[in-house]
Each structure stands twice: as C-alpha cells, then as structure tokens.
Amino acid sequence: MAQNWAAAPVLGTGRTSGRESTLIRIPKFEPAARGAVAGARSRKAGVRPLAAAIVWGMASVIGGGAVIGAFTAAPAQAQAAAPNRNAPGSFADLAEKLLPAVVNISTSQSAPQRPQGPRPEIPQFPPGSPFEDFFRDFFDRQQQQDQPQRKATSLGSGFIIDAKNGYVVTNNHVVQDADEITVILQDDTNIKAELVGKDSKTDLALLKINTTHPLVAVPFGDSDAMRVGDWVLAIGNPFGLGGSVTAGIISARQRNIDAGPYDDFLQTDASINRGNSGGPMFNLNGEVIGINTAIFSPSGGSVGIGFAIPANLAKQVVAQLKEYGKTRRGWLGVRIQAITPEIAESLGLPGHKGALVASVTPDGPAAKAGIQAGDVVTKFDGKEIDEMRRLPRVVAETSIDRAVPVEIWRKGKSQTVQVKVGELEAAEEQGLLAANPDEKQQPKDKAPAQKPTESLGMKLTGITPELRQQFDIKPDLKGVVITEVAGNSTAAEKGLRAGDVILEVGQEEVRKPEDVTAKVQKAKEQSKKSVLLLVDRKGDLRFVAIPLG
Fold this sequence. Notes:
single chain, 549 residues, 30 strands, alpha+beta, 11 helices, globular
C-alpha cells in the first residue's frame, strides 16, 4: 500500500503526522420550537447522518429553547491519591458529594446580521398620484429598519477547582468566540464569568467567577495511577440535562485520536454525550482524573467509546493559564518522525523506540546543542522516549530556559548533549515554525531526464537548471532528483515521487546518481535489509527507509 507523505510534526504545535485527522465538528441543531423545555431533544434541521468517526466539538442552539451541549476536556490542579479499587454498592454518596462542584457553562454569541437584499422597485404611477408618495414612504421605512442580531446560545460543562477565588475549568471550544459566558451552579444560580485564558492545543480554558455564593471545589488526581478496568464517574450537562451522572470503567490508556501533538487520552465506556464537554471524570476518591472531550460515534450519540484528557496533562496548562493568561511551553526546535523497523535497522538502532529528527530549526535550541538531522532522541531530561509522540509532550512540560540532558543515537552510538529549552509561543511569534509545504501539489510536467540512472525502482539524475525550475527546487539545494518512480516499486509504496530530491543515502551525502547506486550496492553487500534515504520535498525533509529485498 502506498504510504502517504506527511510532514513530521513540529514539537509543540497542533500538527500530526502520518494520516489525516478524523476529528469532525458536531453539526448544529435547532430547537423544535421556541420555548421548548430545556433538555428536550430537538429536531435536526437539514443535518445529514454522520458516518462513524471521532466526534469532537460543540453543538450550538440558535435562539431560546432546547439546549444542546458538547463534549471535550478540561484540566486543573490538585493533590493525587491512590484511587480506591473497590467498587461500591452504590455511587450515590460519591455523586452527592461531587455534584455541587460541577457546573453548566452557557455562552452566547452575536450572529452575523443577515445581508439585506436589493431594494424593490417602486411601482410606476401617473405623475402626481397619491400612491406614488405612499409607496415611497413605505419602502423608505422598510429600508431604515435594521434587522436585530440573532444570538447563538450553546451549553457545555465545567468544574470548580478553587472555591475561594472562583476558578472554573472547561473546554476552549465551549467558550470560543463567546461574547458572554455564564456559569450555572447546581442550584441554578447564574453568575457571569470572565475568561482568564485558553489553550487551543489542549482545548482547555480557565474561567473566573466573582460571587459571595458558597462554592464547592474538587481536586485533581493522578491520572497516571489509573489502570484499565478502574471505575470512573462522569458528571456533566448532556443535551442540556444538567447534573447528569454516569459510571463506567477506564477502557484504555494513551489513546491517540489525532487531536494534536499532546494526545494521551483516557478511553472510557461511561456514557458521554453532547453537553459533557469540559465536564470532569472522577475516580472513586472524588478526584478529577480526566476531562471529557470526545466520543467515537456513528450517529453523534454515545456508543460507549469516550475520551478524556488526563488530569496530569491538564494540571500544567491550567497553572500557566492562571499565572500568565496563556501557555508557556518548552520548545526544542526540531521536526520529528516515527521510527519504523526498517529505519531502525538502517540506523543500527536496537528496537524501534525514539523520535527521529528529520530537520533542525536554524539557531533553535537543538541546533545550538549540536543535534543534527538523522539523530534519534531516545531520552529527554531522563525520561524515556518510547515513541515519537511522547517527545512533544515531554518537551512542552519542561521549564523554559532550563538546560536538560538529551540522549541521542547517532551513527551507531549513544551520546548525550545539553539543550537549553526555548519557548514555543515566542518561536511561533517570531515565525520560526515554518508551515508545511503543500502536500497535494504535484509537478506540472516531467522534464526529460538526462542520462538517468535507475535504482530502487526510480530514475535518478543530477539537478539541472531546467529540473530546478520545473520541480521548484531551492537554488542552494544539492543532491539527486527523482524524475520517475515505477508504480509497482517499493519506492512508490513509501510515497516517493518525481521531483523529490535525495540528499543522503545511509546518512552520507550524495551529489550524483552514481553515488546513490554505489551506496545502495554497499548496503546490499553488508546484508542490510533496507537503506535509509534523506529526501527533500519542497523544503520538507523526511527520512525514508527503502527495503532491499
């Protein structure tokens, strides 16, 4: 099967690698009638059935009436304790204790004013007719009447983490673009809320309410202590039915649903529906160990596969939002890709753990520390990098300007370098995180290859001025350009195509097609199962391991 070419993710960004995200927004619903009872299931207006997919987001209700919410995640901070493993005969005592800390989040947003159509023509009447003045006055009055702006109203969930200062955690998408935010307590007390800060990368937001009303807060627990099979309790506002309690177990851990670079979701079979966004998931000690954020569903309703942001990921985000009003994440300054068995074999790397550095940002923290493309990061600040997607989270959680040891694998040897961690947000503001090239752009025409060399199912030639112009190759780029790829070749299966430029073979530079052929032959003589290529596609660097069998 052909491999899709995707740019490696930038550490600390929302990009993912390898496959397109299946996250989709929930379609909006309109109430069946104005004044409908809050929480009644409304009639879907013009919404097509959804295919099975990860459902992510916030359903909005236009106008008054039925209230429909969403599902997402939220974080906070607190002391962790070992969860109680014994299932109770009833969750009633626990639910009674936790319900006052869970709130509904109501937001409203001014909808765009409908554009007015062209003014209708005044009927023609004989000169001096009294109807002429009458119709002119009528149409003038109609044009002067401004249509009132509509209000888009939507609901989600949240929970109080600090009763003294009134801090409430919810999802970013619950309050995104809201003009007004209202926190609704269990006893239906409505309190206007202030947005302290939000983070789109983890879909978290922190609110603050000022009130003399007594509040109840809940602590964060240790989400890493949760095991598959542990009982959990979810409380939220599904379909506008506030204060709903559901129970289930942890079905799986460390789920990656392509929501962003920090995916590490807890999976649960506790019923989660629209409106649970930002609501807490508790362990049996009454601690928040997750924030309900997404479901997998063919219809938009719960089918027993829900996802929650782990509390240990949320704690730091909430702490930064409280202190700075924004996040301040660590930044390494590399683009990475996953280690496949073929790549590991080509690098002589025991196992296939770690994150392969595809490129290094000039003058970034990694570059200053001497990290190079082709290095494999196996440890960061003493923490094992067992898979690629763990590195972005570990780096993001590291304090800015702190020097940390980074263990890398380079040319068959393990070595350690010291890296002074930078700030991701500052790098973004300075434009150091270049956008990915257009992956769908294809070369318009193929230039005639001049004495091409065939190797690995590809036709290769040196870079000529004509090819440089045709394939939009950078003026200073040196290497061997691919002019044709056989459809049934392993190169095609790995996603290589005409216009790609081979820079290295076996981590050694190549300048002409004969270099590629010689290094491939050398790899075969050494009985290697694959050969590692460093390929440039319009500025996007990626390592590709081509099997030699």
